[in-house]
Write a structure and sequence with these properties.
The protein is an alpha+beta fold. The chain has 3 domains: about 90 residues, no CATH class; about 200 residues, 3-Layer(aba) Sandwich (Rossmann fold), CATH 3.40.50; about 200 residues, Jelly Rolls, CATH 2.60.120.620. The chain is about 25% helix and about 30% strand. Helix 1 crosses helix 3, helix 4 packs across helix 7 and helix 7 packs across helix 8.
């Protein structure tokens, strides 16, 4: 299959010195779909390319489509399933980048960061690696990859943050990219080399120094390069601790691994000014032997799980005419907007500019346009419940309000169920609208992750940022911690405000269970 002069491949980005291009002759919009499956490190286009790989994708038969992928003039893959095509392209791009990168060494495996050190799980047992990486991230570790450990010439680990999947299911509750944390290159601190069936009690051998890097060598991507291999071993072995044994239970092992790194840092700090200081490697090895081989086993820290708040964002939610009618209504009744309140201890709304600054349209005036939302909103409820992982509940009232955030408007972090009068809220919905072009910046919805512990839940210091796009609806669990970031408008004009309709699906009364004779008691 020959590319004509008018066909220009589209660049997906440059990552680790390799540019990936795609020539899509299918009409499927493959570039966008493949980008979504690639790690951000490959699509940032922030570096120059020393190698280029181009995929040409064509349709063989329009009546019964078969999609064929060609690389360097050779047909390398064919399928009639678009989803399989995207999956194959994403995985082959991973391999092409790993093999084509001249300056980095790629190792099959998973990686997390914790306390400034990288924990690497080398190998090709993808499912087991993904399970363990997922549990480490749930405990608060920083996600680096479940596909490759990427080492530079100094032995530091770089991120390769592919979407994490287990059994083909994307783990949407995991915080894979932390907005407040830059995934910088980390020194390699620990390798977890696993193989064979799980043991009842996990007591891996602890190795440091010579031969501790062998599990990395065994899992390297591509043909053996003795020069690069020798460089990697020489750089990482002096500061590496390797735990080698059978596959552990992911939940228990995740707790032990993070705890022993914490203990190593404490021990290192305590002995920093003594003759026994040594390096962090010495303390890490000692902590591993103490925690994993002492009798009885050392207790782990209490259970904790970091949960990323799920959300759904729907574009073009209302017909254009309805969206225009709503905006015209809000602008017409500018004079009736009053200061927004927050629910106080008594259950009443109180104005508190330390917590919230916005203006709200009186309920009666908003009811004049409520019929624009009633049908569309109820129509997405079943879909929203499924995507948010919320069990079925009997629908109660549909609470709503229309607000405008002007200059300096904001709402501090909070949950929508924080008072008994709001305890039955289940799904929060925010519809955004504004004149175009938008004449403000800021005002993003920040959805905080949640720490789940035996004593309850609390907001975490990591989050997802959702931009308020015109005519879009965002839905999320009402129990989630969230805030409205400060709004900065181009002028004091009311029309420059950030307008939003906030709505809540409440849970109604559940039906009484039937008695054994089929009659309600």
């Amino acid at each position: 299959m020959v590319t004509t002069q008018t066909e220009v491949p589209q660049s997906l980005g440059v990552g680790y010195g390799v540019e990936v291009q795609i020539l899509d002759r299918t009409g499927l919009g493959l570039a966008g779909q493949v980008r979504a499956a690639l790690p951000p490190e490959l699509i940032a286009s922030g570096s120059s390319a020393t190698a280029v790989v181009t995929y040409a994708v064509s349709v063989v038969d329009e009546t019964a489509p078969e999609y064929v992928v060609t690389v360097d003039g050779l047909d390398v893959y064919a399928t009639n399933v678009p989803e399989a095509l995207v999956d194959w392209l994403a995985r082959d791009i991973d391999t092409a980048v790993a093999r084509g990168c001249a300056d980095m060494t790629f190792v099959h495996g998973g990686v997390v960061g914790w306390r400034g050190l990288a924990i690497v799980i080398p190998g090709r047992e993808a499912r087991a690696i993904s399970h363990l990486v997922a549990e480490l991230v749930r405990r608060g570790a920083i996600y680096y990859s479940d596909r490759f450990a990427v080492l530079d010439r100094q032995g530091r680990i770089h991120p390769y943050r592919v979407p994490l999947e287990i059994d083909g299911i994307r783990q949407r509750d995991l915080r894979l990219i932390q907005n407040d944390v830059i995934a910088e290159p980390l020194p390699l601190g620990m390798v977890l080399a696993c193989g064979g069936p799980p043991a009842d009690v996990w007591r891996p051998s602890v190795r440091s120094g010579r031969r501790s890097a062998l599990p990395l060598v065994d899992a390297m991507v591509g043909p053996r390069d003795d020069t690069r291999l020798a460089n990697v071993v020489a750089v990482v072995e002096p500061t590496l601790v390797t735990l080698q044994g059978p596959w552990p239970d992911p939940v228990g092992a995740a707790a032990h691994l993070l705890d022993l790194v914490d203990e190593a840092h404490v021990s290192y700090a305590v002995h920093a000014l003594t003759e026994e200081a040594g390096g962090i490697t010495d303390h890490l090895a000692r902590a591993a032997r103490t925690r994993l081989h002492s009798e009885p086993a050392r207790p782990t820290t209490p259970f904790r799980r970091l949960i990323a708040t799920p959300y759904v964002q729907l574009s073009d939610f209302l017909p254009s005419a309805d969206r225009d009618q709503l905006l015209e209504h809000a602008l017409r009744w500018e004079a009736e907007f009053a200061e927004s309140g927050v629910v106080g201890m008594t259950g009443k709304n109180n104005v508190d500019h330390d917590a919230r600054k916005s203006r709200t349209l009186p309920p009666g005036r908003f009811e004049e346009v409520w019929d624009l939302f009633e049908g569309p909103l109820r129509g997405v409820l079943a879909y929203a419940r499924k995507e948010l992982g919320i069990d079925w509940f009997p629908l109660g009232k549909l609470e709503r309000q229309l607000t405008a955030h002007g200059p300096g408007g904001f709402f501090v972090p909070h949950v929508d169920t924080g008072h008994p009068v709001a305890a039955t809220r289940r799904i929060s919905c925010v519809y955004y609208f504004h004149p175009t072009p938008r004449r403000y910046h800021g005002g993003e919805l920040r959805l905080y992750d949640t720490w789940d512990t035996p004593t309850g839940t609390t907001g975490a210091a990591s989050w997802t940022t959702v931009t308020p796009e015109d005519n879009s609806l965002v839905l999320f669990p009402s129990t989630a911690f969230h805030e409205v970031r400060p709004v900065h408008t181009e002028s004091d004009a009311f029309a420059d405000s950030r307008f939003a309709v906030t709505m809540w699906f409440h849970e109604g009364e559940r039906p009484e269970p039937a008695s054994s004779d089929g009659l309600t008691p």
